[in-house]
Design brief:
elongated; 5% helix; 2 domains
């Protein structure tokens, strides 16, 4: 069985050479000088360090300290990945081990087949001390054992540039020397975009614009005029809100973790109307106001078991839509309105409706089927001021124009 290199377990004194770049993708992508990499490190910007031993790739470290993120992948002499360790921020200025995975398989298996047939172990930690350990002794061939325990995760301070000894020790590496590579034989290529992105989930930048009457936005070279309409009131007898496709309320519609005082609250919808086709409008978002105080902070609404640390670049947790409609409903009312969607007739103009009992507010879902996030607004006292179901009609995240990815 192969367990990686075992370099340091045999007492071998190792000297690791470092190549800096935007990332690794079957070679060095967009190489960086050591000075440029150090500048990024100090600024917290993402970059990759490829660690070499005897001229071959030994480990790849994807680093982004502004995101309090580090991913370390180790490789054996045959180029097969044998471990991956991911560290995340604690919120207190240091890092904790979020996930550690290892592969241990026969020595005669190639690098592409190896992760599928090698024995796998994966340990996941939460800051609360919950530890989940999964063993798959035959890889994809079957068999799985999972255990849970309480064990605080390993924690480390964010290291200075190239001071990675403690990070590498998590992967059983304890090199005595880390130096900049002067020359290397790795393949090098250029790319317009880096091969990896830090785990920055989708954010609701510009969400307030969706409820600004008279504002205009451009979509596919066409002008849209924004407006907001009162859609009715929603009765929340339990204060546990569900956002869902109304046709799926009997399947897997769960309330959000954040609750509000029971009551009846106003709902408004944002509309975007094509300037050159005033009869054509789409719902941009639906807003449930808990108070009239302005939101100063936005967070993604989560359901039980969802953890933002599991989200990657521009990913989000959302509710799925298959019938072209979305709705708000209280958890205690969901069973009573499970068949209401059959009477909504596709929600043509106007594109929203409230049931007579105020148990449901429904609206047409943006461009149609898909997955949509809900944002929670908090005021200066950290009290919930509103929920906004974002129909992702057009990009509100200003980082780039990548497609959103729902988890």
């Amino acid at each position: 069985m192969s367990t990686g290199d075992g370099l340091y377990g045999r007492g071998v004194i190792a000297r690791l050479e470092v190549v800096y770049c935007d990332g690794w993708d079957d070679g060095v992508v967009n190489p960086l000088t050591a000075a440029a990499a150090e500048t990024r490190d100090v600024a917290g910007e993402p970059y990759t360090a490829v660690l070499l031993i005897d001229g071959r790739r030994h480990a790849v470290m994807d680093l982004s300290w502004a995101d309090e993120y580090c991913r370390m992948s180790r490789f054996d002499a045959a180029g097969r990945q044998v471990s991956c360790h991911e560290l995340r921020g604690t919120g207190s200025g240091d890092l904790f081990l979020r996930r550690a995975a290892t592969w241990d398989g026969p020595p005669d298996v190639g690098e592409h087949e190896y992760p599928h047939v090698a024995a796998r172990t994966c340990t996941t930690y939460r800051l609360s001390g919950e530890r989940t350990h999964v063993v798959e002794p035959r890889g994809d061939l079957g068999g799985r054992h999972e255990s849970r325990s309480i064990q605080p995760p390993p924690r480390l301070p964010i290291p200075d540039f190239r001071r990675w000894r403690d990070l590498l020790s998590l992967a059983a590496d304890t090199p005595v020397e880390i130096v900049n590579a002067v020359h290397h034989r790795l393949p090098v290529r250029t790319a317009t975009r880096p091969p990896w992105r830090p785990p920055r989930p989708l954010r609701p930048r510009g969400i307030e614009l969706l409820f600004t009457p008279g504002a205009r936005v451009e979509y596919n070279d066409r002008q849209l005029r924004l407006s907001a309409r009162a859609a009715g009131r929603l009765h929340l007898p339990s204060g546990r809100l569900i956002a869902a496709d109304p046709s799926s309320l009997d399947l897997d519609a769960k309330p959000f973790d954040v609750t509000v005082p029971p009551g009846t609250y106003p709902v408004s919808v944002g509309l975007a109307t094509f300037v050159d086709d005033p009869g054509h409008s789409r719902v941009t978002a639906a807003r449930l106001d808990i108070s009239d105080r302005p939101a100063v902070r936005w967070e993604l609404a989560l359901r039980d078991g969802q953890d933002p640390l599991d989200l990657g670049y521009r990913q989000f947790y959302g509710f799925g839509v298959d019938a072209g409609m979305a709705c708000y409903v209280d958890a205690d009312s969901a069973d009573r309105v499970v068949d209401v969607w059959r009477t909504l007739d596709g929600l043509v103009e106007p594109r929203y409706r409230t049931t007579d009992s105020d148990d449901m507010v429904a609206w047409s879902s943006g461009w149609g089927d898909g997955a949509y996030p809900t944002w929670i607004g908090y005021d200066t006292s950290c009290a919930v001021t509103c929920f906004i179901a974002d129909m992702l009609l057009f990009p509100t995240d200003s980082e780039d124009e990548d497609d959103e990815d729902e988890d």
